[in-house]
Amino acid sequence: MIRQVLIRRLQRVFLILSIVLFAGIVYLAVTGIGYLRPRAIERLILITPTPEGETVALISGHAGYDSGAICGESNAPTLLEADVVANIADLVRQRLQDAGLEVLILEEYDDRLTDLDTELLLSLHADSCIGASGFKATNPLNSAIPATERRLIACINTEYAAQTGLSLHTNSITHDMTYYHAFRKVLPTTPTAILELGFLGGDGPLLTQEADRVAAGITESIFCFLRGATTAQ
C-alpha cells in the first residue's frame, strides 16, 4: 500500500515537472526570437566590414615607366608629370590612411593590377603643358558596372571641382582614357576611373604649390563614392 502511494506521488511529481518543462519550452518558442534577434544583429554589426577596413588603390601615373609630360626645356625641365602626380598621390594616401582606409599606391604597369579586387581603383595623371585649364575623368567605355562607375565619376566631377575650383574639360577626353590599359586588368567588379588632375601648363601652380587642395579634392571624391552620397549623372 505504501509502495503504491509513493508511486502515485512520484507520478504526480513527474507530471508537474513535465508540465513546467513544456511551459518553459513554449515560452522560449514564443519569446526566443525577440530575445535572440538583438544579439544576432549585434554579432552581424561586429563582423560587418566598416569603411575603415576598405581598400582603395591609386595608380601614380607613369610611375616606374616614364616621366609622362615634360614641361620646360629638355635639358632643364621645370615640371615632370610623374613627379607632380607622385607627390599628390602620396598626400592622398596620407589623408585616406588617417581616415582608417587601406591604400595601395601602384605604378603605371604594376603587376598587382592583374585581377585587382578593391573598393575602387583611381589612376591619377596630369595633362599636357599647353596653357589650358580644367580636369577630366572617365570610366571604361565598355564597363561591366556602368551605373557604379558613373557614380564614381559624378563624385569626382562634384567634389574635385569644389575643392580645386577647376572646371570640367570633358571635350578633351581621349580614346586612351576610355580604353586605359589598367581597366582591362582589374576584376570587372572593381570600380575604376582615370582622372586628369589639370593641365601642367595652365594649372601648374595649383598642382605644385597647392597640392594639398588637389589631394583634398581626390580624397573627398573617394569618400563621396564610398558613402554612396552622390547619384550617377
Please sum up the structure shown:
The chain contains 6 helices and 7 strands.
Structural features, described:
It is built from six helices and seven strands, in the order αβββαβββααβαα. The chain is an alpha/beta fold. A hairpin with a 2-residue loop joins strand 2 and strand 3 (about 75-80). It is globular, with a radius of gyration of 30 Å. The protein starts with a helix and ends in a 6-residue tail after the last helix.
Alpha-carbon distance between the two ends: 92 Å
What's the total number of strands? 7
Strand content range: 15-25%
Strand order across the largest sheet: 4-1-5-7-6
- What is the helix content? 40-55%
Give the SSE map.
Blueprint: H1 2-47, E1 55-60, E2 70-73, E3 76-80, H2 81-98, E4 102-106, E5 120-127, E6 136-138, H3 146-164, H4 175-178, E7 192-199, H5 204-209, H6 211-227
Parallel strand pairs: 1-4, 1-5, 5-7
Antiparallel strand pairs: 2-3, 6-7
Helix pairs in contact: 2-6, 3-6
